[in-house]
Amino acid sequence: MALLSVLTPVLAAVLCMVIGFMFVKSRQTETTSKDETKRDSKAAFRPWVDQDLQDDTEITREDDGEWVDSTEEEDLQHVPYSPPRYPEEKMLQRSQEFYTLMNQRRSVRFISPEPVPREVIDNVIRTAGTAPSGAHTEPWTFVVVSDPETKHQVRLIVEEEEEVNYRQRMGDKWVNDLAKLRTNWIKEYLDEAPYLILIFKQTYGNLPNGKKKTHYYNEISVSISCGILLAALQNVGLVTVTSTPLNCGPQLRLLLKRPANEKLLMLLPVGYPASDATVPDLKRKPLDDIIVHM
Description:
By secondary structure, this protein is mainly alpha-helical. The chain contains nine helices and five strands. It has a three-stranded antiparallel beta sheet. It has a two-stranded antiparallel ribbon with strand order 3-4. A hairpin with a 5-residue loop joins strand 3 and strand 4. The chain is globular, with a radius of gyration of 29 Å.
């Protein structure tokens, strides 16, 4: 009995320590969980990501019978390939000349309504179509709009969504970063440019037999094609500004009567620069800042 009376305070102290430790551990776990939830929520909230532009290479196939099996496709013949090979001096000259040409490329928001030959536009798009693509699926559609009324409808859709983007979706930091470029949601060039080229990525292909074909890396493939298109436009002396208006894709897809498998990736107003066109006096990073030799 005497021994029990001595041990009771000790047991009580140990019990209190255990309970206290469990309480602290519980609070730490709860705090960690809340922090992770906040981080996940913050990561999920990316206002600059257009929800219509997710790279859905991995599409859920509700009915496998609707999709073409790769084994159904014919074997592809391989042919010899022998491109021109230039002497080193010629290579250096060509590389420098091409860099000089592309270094003159600028994003231009002041575009002349002066007509541009349609054949030129066809050729630059034909050039963009030479881009590599996942499994050679060529998952791109270039919609060329020259009709004034359709161009104006495009402008109305874009400006309505862009105003919401600037006032709500983009956030103060993004808007402030754009302030020096003097850009806003008013897009006169969508009416003024002789052509609007809207580039759609095909999330999957529709075959003549009614089956669907997987388009691997469709967004990356179309983005590469857009880069070649910009180079082709520069090569013929035309200008553009790369426009990716957030959340306009569904409306523009309906306006232009595009199928459900196509998602808008980029919108390019194309033409000659206006006689009074100006661009920000920006500088590009030097080579040492963008290259790493190993």
